[in-house]
Amino acid sequence: MNFGLILWYAILIIILVLLILYFYIRFKASVIFFVDKDKFFPLPGFIIKLVCAFLFLPFLFFTYKWIFYFGMFVIFQMLFDLVVMTFFANSKKRWFHILYHIFAVPLILTAVFFILGYVNTQNITRKEYEVLSEKEVLAVSDASRTFTTYEEGSSKLVMIADLHYPTTLNEEKLKEVVDRINKEDADIIVLCGDMTDEDTSKEKMLECIRVLGELDAKLGVFFVWGNHDDNRYNSAPTYEKAEVYEAYKNNGIYVLEDEAVLFGNGILLVGRKDYSDESGRKSMEELLKDASVKTGRSLEELYENVIVVADHEPKEYAQDKAAGCDIVISGHTHDGQIWPLGLFSTLFKMNDLTYGMKQDEGLTQIVTSGLGTWGFPVRTAGRCEYVVINIGE
């Protein structure tokens, strides 16, 4: 039993009940204000009730886009009420009371908030981390189909996650990002889940993977599954997981699903099946044993390499540390995407890490905010980014 999840839902229910009571009192006060004939700006009571009912539609239908918009409206309304009660409680100006009772200020603030959130999504940033290791890691100086040469230096890994195509980026903008990443001249590129989701049509899924197929890395481009890629949340899916797999394969992208790849530059990349997959997934110990059999190397020899785990959801990091892994990279959290969701994620420990880089003894944890957004092209927490990780001594 997940006590944290139960507590989270209990708090949501309490908040919902309190909000309903709050807005009942608030809307009732507005109705009284506008239908009072002695006031400056009377309106028929049924119009006010209609507006109130419209604002409560999110709670009736509980569609996720409405909830985000309405949630921010609620926050701004409560903050505005606090300001009014503190500084303007005795104001006699009619225009002020009119603005107050038609919810003008919180509505304007909500609109500005989400407009700025859209603008934020269109600025893709580059996030870079340096990960030091006592293990020997080589830079790839040249790579071809016939041979690969190495030299002293750090190895560059580029990670992108949570594209959720085409919510934020269209084909043209995605190509621009691909061109930027190719200029990084990376040794390894990892697509760390949720490149597409339940709102992605089959046509757009194929388009997305075709563009991602233009990514170029010396040792290859690898994909691990997220919780949205297989279209499981769509009540009428237009494609199946096998079709997504074939699309990646046909575009030269290697799918890692509970599988490991050993590179000659001293890096062992382990791609995990998504944490939410109902079929279950292998433990890190099992995956390393499989890698030992696959590569013909003993476990001791494998541990001489830097073990990088690509796991879409930042979960079970304690197991990665116990298994002796060196680096784990994830996405999924979006760094909250809509403020203040990230704060709740951290408070209730819904993930092992919400964003950034953290050192936990011998394990380096890195979580990206993602290249795109889920649901709609708005980000009011964090930045849209791709991540560059330099691994070396």
SSE sequence, one letter per element? HHHHHHEEEEHEHEHEEEHHEHEHEEE
Distance between the termini: 42 Å
Question: Which descriptor suits the 3D outline?
Answer: elongated
Total of helices: 13
- β-strand number: 14
Q: Low-confidence parts, pLDDT < 50 over ≥5 residues?
A: 37-46, 58-62
The assigned CATH architecture of the largest domain is 4-Layer Sandwich
Mean pLDDT: 86
Largest sheet: 6 strands, mixed
Oligomerization category of the chains in this entry:
single chain
Total number of distinct structural domains: 2
* Strand order in the largest sheet: 1-14-4-5-6-7
Account of the 3D structure:
By secondary structure, the protein is α/β, with parallel strands linked by helices. The protein folds into two domains: 3-117, no CATH class; 124-392, 4-Layer Sandwich (Purple Acid Phosphatase, chain A, domain 2), CATH 3.60.21. Helix content is 41%, strand content 18%. The chain is built from 13 helices and 14 strands. It has helices at residues 3-35, 45-55, 57-61, 64-87, 94-101, 104-121, 171-182, 202-212, 241-250, 284-295, 299-302, 317-322, 341-347, and strands at 125-132, 138-143, 148-152, 155-160, 188-191, 221-223, 254-255, 259-262, 267-271, 306-310, 327-330, 356-360, 363-367, 385-392. The protein has a six-stranded mixed β-sheet with strand order 1-14-4-5-6-7, covered by helices on one side. Strand 5 (188-191), helix 8 (202-212) and strand 6 (221-223) form a beta-alpha-beta unit. Helix 1 (3-35) packs antiparallel against helix 2 (45-55). It is elongated. The chain starts with a helix and ends with a strand. Mean pLDDT is 86; it is low at 37-46 and 58-62.
